[in-house]
Write a structure and sequence with these properties.
Length: 469
């Protein structure tokens, strides 16, 4: 009887070792194996068989995976692996046996509106067998998510200020949404890195480290926070000055006045000149006055005259945009002579001559024409080509008075029955050349005649020759 009792007790222990249950939770993105300890598989065990894997009872955050599993003679554990989103699972195992049974794995913490692909794996002492892929998609969650509002940021403060670094901090409430931090500063160069609350709706201290600041420089800095509902700047910035001497302030270079601005402003232009008037007229001098608008660029003014010899001074009109009255002195005028003069203004955008010139006669009697040889002229011989319009140098002359080229009038008789006005170019002190443009229609030798005159002097003429081929 004692022997029979011992056998019964041993049989009970073996039977209890064959019956077990187990469950475990798996963190998102990992897999696990559930099983039970106890007596090993029988010597005739083989790998489990898995069939008819499917998903059922799928909600926004939960699902159940089922399959028919045959332990094939050894106790068998079930594990789950999924891709697609977050999840956790629990599953029961099977005792040793040879009959297929339905196993169920419960999935929780799924992500709403997400496609999943899962497998069930059955494992015993002889090996593991994986099910076919089980695909399903979770529906939209029927529970409303937390409301997200724009973050709030308190006053920014600066601490641990050195020559080139500082730390900013401020209380930040993320407003219920994932929140990132930023930094904005004025005053000098800087770089930053920031840390702070990622989400939630409770204020927490956020901070940012500033680097590569400029020594001896005042900065104004604020923390700002951004989530899906918007961006909020610190209610009050931090104002601080980095230590150190900083860069020395360069001594400004003194620029003499007047100095025209070489680069016109975008809205600048050539000057505007109003009508010219004359005052203080004597036998040899006068003063021109007029209104000049610089139009945003440094502008100088002088004069242009016809009628006789003259020399003009200058005036500076500034670089503003309002009209300025300028006065330009004239000297070296001829007595008893009628002059027509205008103020001429110049800046880097161009030159403008008054559209309203002034006419006046100097005091005194004009000097009678003389036959003096003050002007000495010599006409030239030049070669010309028939049918071609060309500019020729036709004469040179000298005048000890050394007047501007505009003081002389020149007439060129081309020897073919036509005449035209020549151009005078000053080539040196008291020396000049005369040029003119002409087209000969016939070949042959032509006798030219060049006549030069100036106010108060007799005309001087010289003959030359044109060889036309």
């Amino acid at each position: 009887m004692e022997q029979d009792g011992d056998v019964g007790m041993e049989f009970g222990r073996v039977r209890r070792a064959l019956v077990w249950t187990g469950a475990a939770a798996l963190v998102a993105g990992t897999t696990g194996v559930l099983g039970a300890t106890g007596a090993g598989a029988t010597a005739t065990a083989s790998k489990p068989a898995v069939a008819e894997a499917a998903a059922k009872d799928v909600t926004a955050t939960t699902a159940k995976l089922t399959a028919k599993v045959n332990p094939n003679g050894a106790k068998t554990s079930i594990s789950v692996a999924c891709t697609g989103g977050s999840y956790a699972w629990s599953a029961n195992g099977l005792a040793a046996g040879g009959t297929p049974s339905t196993v169920t794995a419960s999935l929780t913490s799924l992500t709403p509106e997400t496609g999943y692909s899962c497998t069930l794996t059955a494992t015993n002492s002889a090996g593991s067998t994986e099910s076919s892929a089980i695909g399903f998609t979770t529906p939209e969650s029927s529970e409303p998510g937390p409301e997200v509002t724009a973050p709030t940021v308190g006053d920014t403060t600066a601490t641990d200020v050195t020559d080139t670094t500082a730390t900013l901090s401020a209380p930040v409430n993320p407003g219920g949404g994932a929140t990132t931090l930023g930094v904005t500063c004025t005053g000098g160069t800087y770089k930053w890195t920031a840390t702070g609350p990622a989400s939630g709706d409770t204020p927490a201290l956020a901070s940012a480290d500033l680097t590569e600041l400029e020594p001896g420089t005042e900065y104004t800095c604020s923390l700002k926070a951004t989530n899906s509902a918007g961006t909020t700047q610190s209610s009050a910035p931090a104002v601080f000055t980095t230590t150190g001497a900083g860069e020395p302030t360069p001594t400004p270079t003194v620029t003499p006045t007047p100095t025209p601005d070489p680069t016109p402003a975008p809205d600048a232009g050539a000057p505007t000149v109003g009508p010219t008037a004359a005052a203080g007229v004597t036998s040899d001098s006068a003063t021109l006055t007029g209104s000049v608008t610089p139009n945003g660029i440094a502008t100088a003014a002088t004069a242009t005259c016809t009628g006789g010899a003259w020399t003009a001074g200058g005036a500076f009109a500034g670089s503003g945009t309002a009209p300025v009255t300028v006065s330009v002195p004239l000297t070296g005028l001829s007595a008893g002579t009628k002059y027509v003069c205008a103020i001429q203004a110049t800046n880097t955008a161009g030159t403008t001559t008054s559209a309203g010139p002034v006419s006046f006669v100097t005091n005194g009697a004009p000097k009678p024409p003389t036959t003096s040889t003050a002007i000495s002229i010599k006409a030239k011989t030049f070669n010309a080509k028939k049918g071609k319009s060309k500019t020729y140098a036709v004469a040179t002359f000298t005048d000890k008075a050394d007047l501007p080229a505009s003081s002389y009038k020149v007439t060129i008789n081309w020897g073919d029955g036509t005449s035209s006005t020549g151009k005078v170019v000053r080539t040196g002190k008291g020396t000049y050349k005369v040029t003119g443009k002409h087209k000969y229609t016939k070949a042959g030798k032509k006798t030219t005649k060049v006549t030069v005159s100036k106010s108060g002097s007799a005309k001087v003429t010289s003959k030359g020759r044109a060889n036309t081929a």
